[in-house]
């Protein structure tokens, strides 16, 4: 069959074919398909197995095509285990496998489920050389494949679309796009030398890194928003917190170590989301009622967030800058607060009732705490 560039016989060919199965990049799409089924709340074995196989053939196509283009076409890679003819045959085989599995999926789960699987193969086949030179498509290709796998895995079980799988797809699309930018920045010097336009090349390494972490943070924020809105279970934000801890450590590492941390953190993120969806540990649990502080409730929240702001400012050495900002902002905030309270825009029932200059004393503190917290966060981020 002449798949292998080194060695002869079936064993060498099988080894060459197996070399294109990269577990680190292969497992997430397969896990995403299963996660979609978990979101649906049922496991019909045939649709699940077929959709997972479709994801496998799509990613395998991407790996073979990428190696074929980079080594045999562009000459970018130093080595590749497969011959050019072997790559083309492997591409034909994986494509045939995908078509066969997708056709079976159309019979078992319906034509819409099969149609939702097709983008996975298109993203894989067109990754190189069509998508991997454009900063948008080279960044979004793999994350979009994960998102499509989640939605498709759900549809294979439920036979319909819903808000939860679409929201999950958006979370992983956003978060993994940030991870992909950091991953691409590892090859910044080489990509510049061959005019490969990744986000790092277009924006520069520093701005690309900031943009990448902004996307990761946006993904975490979406988890919280969807949980508050009732789309995600109440325990879902705990997954974002866990991944957030990993991300904090990743910000202090170089691109290679940061990529390693973020990819492994993504596995933890997905696993905890699976636990949140499957077991729903906080379902029915009431929100913590801080109203037990009675008239001191509002004041207690200001003390808590004020302490956080003070800690950030001391750490960043920005206490004076925060105080100056708060004092400059204070007159505008005072008038705004007085006016909105006077015309009845909002009310504050859980307060002490003590007023100063026509507004509750808690509002005076609020006008100091909020700018201090904003400056503290800004200075902390700027220091990082």
Shape type: elongated
* Second CATH tier, the architecture of the domain at 10-161: Orthogonal Bundle
Helix content: over 70%
- Widest sheet: strand ordering: 1-2
- Low-confidence parts, pLDDT < 50 over ≥5 residues? none
**CATH fold name of the domain at 10-161, please?**
Tetracycline Repressor, domain 2
Put simply, the count of helices is: 16
CATH class of the domain at 10-161: Mainly Alpha
Q: What is the H-and-E element order? A: HHHHHHHHHHHHHHHEEH
Distance between the termini: 54 Å
- Number of beta strands: 2
Write the layout of secondary structure elements.
Layout lengths: L9 H9 L4 H18 L4 H29 L10 H26 L1 H15 L1 H5 L3 H24 L4 H22 L3 H6 L5 H5 L1 H24 L7 H15 L4 H25 L17 H20 L2 H24 L12 E2 L2 E2 H23 L1
Antiparallel strand pairs: 1-2
Q: Could you walk me through the main structural features you see in this protein, from its secondary elements to its overall organization?
A:
With 384 residues, the protein is mostly helical. Among the domains are: 10-161, Tetracycline Repressor, domain 2 (Orthogonal Bundle); 290-383, no CATH class. 76% of the residues lie in helices and 1% in strands. The chain has 16 helices and two strands. The chain has helices at residues 10-18, 23-40, 45-73, 84-109, 111-125, 127-131, 135-158, 163-184, 188-193, 199-203, 205-228, 236-250, 255-279, 297-316, 319-342, 361-383, and strands at 355-356, 359-360. The chain has a two-stranded antiparallel sheet with strand order 1-2. A hairpin with a 2-residue loop joins strand 1 (355-356) and strand 2. Helix 2 packs parallel to helix 13, helix 8 runs antiparallel to helix 11 and helix 15 packs across helix 16 (361-383). The model has no long low-confidence stretch (mean pLDDT 93).
